[in-house]
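Journal club prep — side note

Before the paper discussion, L.F. wants everyone to see what a predicted structure for a comparable chain looks like in token form. Sequence:
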Amino acid sequence: MKRKPLVILGAVVVVGLVAGIIGYSVSQDRRNGALTLYGNVDVRQVQLSFRVPGRLVEVVLDEGDAVTPGTRLAQLDPVPYQESLAAAEARLAAARAAYAKARNGPRPAEVEQARARLDQARASLVLSELTRTRQQELVRTKASPQAVLDQAVAQHDASVASLRTATAALDLMEEGTRHEDIEAARAESEAADAALASARTSLSDTTLFAPSTGMIVSRVREPGSIVAAGEPVFVVSLAEPVWVRAYVDEPGLGYVYTGQEVEVFNDTFPDRAYRGVIGFVSPVAEFTPKTVQTPDLRTDLVYRLRVIIQEPDTGLRQGMPVTVRVPRRAPGS
């Protein structure tokens, strides 16, 4: 029966000690003029993949390796794309030759050949006219049958048509290539040039490079795998930017504004302050998320803010709980 008062007395002492600690902490914050917020570290991650499909022949780095912009990470089999590039180069050469031919028009020798054909057609016409006239006289005197005359008349008509064809062919040669044909050949050449550029890009895309400084956190594919375009091969955690996602309640909202400098502390090195700048304050209130390590604001409405760390290092990791100290100064003061 005597132990009950002792238990109650012990509980009172513990409560008193806790209240004293909390009061000391609050009073320290008030004397220091700091607003204490709680949040977690956010680090951007990027999934790296090839823009073209193919067979993975080499994976250079592994999980935990650091990368910098331009670091070679992996390689696809380049042979199919090298063959496509060679075919595109051949098509471009053919298109350029066709464009040059259309632009330059017929060669002088071709024009002379067309003139020779015209002269030949004229000579054939003269001969056919003489033959027709002779056969008409022979038929009139009944020295030759009508069938021979009919053949001579048909030959004359054919010679007239051949003369027209030769004349038109020479006119086309002398006029040169039509403007529309030249433009079509030029368009074909430009299309072949673009196809060659695309083939070169596809070949260069068979090598995967790191886009920025960071660390490989996941190696997804292994050599020998057939990967599709856009299928992740690595997951890289970027070194920058690193920010803290924190929350502030309505009474402290007036002390928080964009561009304000703050200090960030983690549990590993509580005496080491990281410099940060508030880069975003949400205009919309929300319920306090469960990840916020605040003991007494679980159900209150808060405003989300983002603190950008100025000089991040490996001491701040993804998801790490941190404490943010915000000076209690009104904007502009």
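L.F.'s comment for the group: Confidence is low (pLDDT under 50) at residues 1-31. Keep this in mind when we get to the figures.
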